[in-house]
Amino acid sequence: MEVNYAYKGNTAVVDKGDRTQMSFSPDTKREPTFFIGELRQNIAFREAISALHDVVVSDLRFKPKDKTAYKEWAAKQLEIDWQQVAVQRQEILNRMQELRTELKDFYDRHYQRLKPYYDARENFRQYVFRKQLDIYFLFDPVITVHPDEIFFECFSVDESSYGRLGASYEVFKKIDEFACGTTNIDYSHDLYNEFQKIRNYKTTKLEVDPSGFEVKTTNEESFKEVKIDLPDSWVRGFLQVSSAMSLPATKFDLHPMDVHNLCFVLRRHKEKHGPRGMRYHLTPGQPVRVVFEPWNIEVVCSRSPYLGNEEKVIRVWGRRRLHILERLIPIAKKFTVHLLGTGMPSFYVADLGDLSFTLGLSGWTSNDWAQAGNFDLMAPRAEVDNLTKQQIFNALKQNWAEPPDVLARRLNLDRSVVLGALSSYTQAGSAIFDLNKQVYRVRELSREPLPMEKLRFANEREEKATRFLSQNAVEVTSCTGDAANVLILQGVVKDKGNVYHPSLTIDSDRRIIQAECTCNWHLQNKLFKGPCEHILALRTHHDRQRR
Predict the structure, then answer these.
(1) pTM for the full predicted model
(2) Cβ contacts of residue 158 below 8 Å, gap of 6+?
(3) Three-class DSSP labels, 398-466
C-alpha cells in the first residue's frame, strides 16, 4: 500500500535558555489542520509524549543472535594456529615477520586508495538507515485537532501496540489559533531527544505549522515529497486495535503503585520457557489479583478492588509491553484496564489529569497465523444502508465528538443502527472510539479511503473462515484438556455440500501446535503455509463460544 506525503520543510525545534518551540510540518495534501498553543503542564506532557515514542519504536519480536562475526573470528584463529604449528624454525618465523610487515604496508596503501569508496559507502548506509527509520514514523503520530482536545496516535514497529495521547486544552495556558481535522506530520526520530529538554522553567510552544499550507508554486524547493510502501499488515493491525476499543470489555481501575508492582515483577524475572501468560483474577469486592506464569508469582493489588458483579479469570499475553507505562506511573492518578477476554486485545488508560494516555495491546506480541490473529474483529457486526451511514457520519462531523446515545437521540435513530454505522467507520479508519471520554470521534487515518477489501483479511482463507461462521456452518464436536492446559478441539465444517473434519491442538500459550483437516488444501500444504479455512473457523468458533 503506497502512501504519498508532501511536507513544506521539516519539523523544526528551537531550543533556547528560556523557551522551546516545536513546529511540526503537516501534510500539505490534506485539509488544512493546524494548532498553536503554549504548554501549561510541561512535565506531564513530556513524560506522556515520551511514552508515545516508546510505543512507536517498540519491537519485542524474537531476534536470533548473529554469530557470523564469531565464526569468522574462530576461522581466523584456527588458521593462525595451523600457521604457528607449521613454523618450526626461527628463520621461517623471521621471514614471516618480514612478509607480514610488507603485507601490512600493502594493505595500508590499498586502503588509502579505496578510502573515498569506503566513505561514500558509509554515507550511503547512514542515508538508508535514516530512510528506513522514517518508515517507523509513518502515521506516527497522526495528529488530530478537535474542539475540546488535541490527540496523537501511533502504532508500533512489531504491529502489536497502539498508543494514543490526548491533551485537553486545559494543558495549554495560551492557544492562539487552531483548525479542526487530522493530518500526518513530518516527525523525525531526533525529535524524541528534543522532548527530553522540556522543563517547567522554560516556556514550551507546540505548533502544528499553519504556514505549511501556503502553497505558492508547484515546484517550490522547500517541499519534501515522500512515497512509502506501507505493509498491509501494519495498517490492518492498526485498524484491528482501533476497532477493538469499541467492543464490550471487563473494566476495572488499578492504582499507579499496583502497575509499578506488575512492572517490577517483570523486571526481576525472565522466563526461559512457557507458559508466558498473565492471569487477572477478578472477584467482586476483592482486590484484583495478578498471577505471572510460569513462576506462579501472585501480585495482590490491595489498593485496587474489583467492582464488577461477576467473578472472572482473564489471561493475556505479551505482558512485557506494559513497561511502556513505567514513565507514566509518577504522574498518573489511576490506570483503567479494559480486558476484552482471554487472548483478546487489552487497553490501559492512564488518567494524567488534563492528559490521558491509552495503551492498546493486541492479543500477542506476534500476531501471526499460529495465534489465528484477531481477523474477526474487523468483520461487519451490523448491516446499515449506505445512506443512513453517511447521515450518521455527517452528523458526527458537525460536533467532531459525541456519545452514541446522544447521537442516536439527535438523529431519532435506534442506538444499534448508530453503533453499527460508527463501527463500520471505525473499521475503515474514519472514526475512533475514545475510551477515556467514552465518545466517538472523527479521525481520518488517511487522506484517501483505505482499500478495506484488501485489508480486512490477510488471505482468502481468513475470508472463507468468516463466511463459515456467519452461515453457522461450524460445530465443535469435542473439546478436551489436560493438566498442562493443552486443549484439543475437534469439529465439523460444512462447505458447499462437503463436510470436513478439522482438529487442532492448542498449547498453554494459546498457540496452534498441531492441526489436521480432511480438505485437499491441508493435505497438500499441511501447516507450512498456515492453517486452512476450516481449522481457522473451528478455532474462532470455539473462542467466540468461550467469550
Answers:
(1) 0.74
(2) 58, 59, 60, 61, 365, 366
(3) HHCEECHHHHHHHHCCCHHHHHHHHHHHHHCCCEEEECCCCEEEECCCCCCCCCHHHHCCCCHHHHHHH
Q: Identify the bridge partners of residue 27 per DSSP, sorted by sequence position.
A: 7
Three state DSSP letters for 186-217: ECCCCHHHHHCCCCCCCEEEEEECHHHHCCCC
Judge whether residue 542 has pLDDT over 70: yes
Q: Are strands 278-282 and 312-316 parallel, antiparallel or unpaired?
A: antiparallel
d(Cα 61, Cα 51) in Å, to the nearest integer?
Answer: 19
Per-chain mean pLDDT for the chain = 80
Question: What does each C-alpha distance from 166 to 177, 304, 319, 365, 431 come to in angstroms?
Answer: 18, 24, 24, 24, 15
pLDDT value for 218: 39
Residue-wise pLDDT for 74-129, tens only, equals 777 666 665 556 556 667 778 888 888 888 888 888 888 888 888 887 787 666 55
Torsion angle of C-alpha atoms 13, 14, 20, 24, degrees rounded to 10: -30
Name the residue among 500, 529, 511, 164 with its Cα closest to residue 361: 164
Question: What is the amino acid identity at position 236?
Answer: R
Instruction: Compute the distance between CA of residue 418 and CA of residue 395 in angstroms, rounded to an integer.
Output: 11
Give the range with max mean pLDDT: 231-245, 335-349, 471-485.
Answer: 335-349
Using DSSP, state whether 176 is helix, strand or coil.
Answer: strand
C-alpha cell at 176: 492562539
CA gap 227, 213 in Å, rounded: 19
Determine phi and psi for 288, rounding to 5 degrees: -65, 135
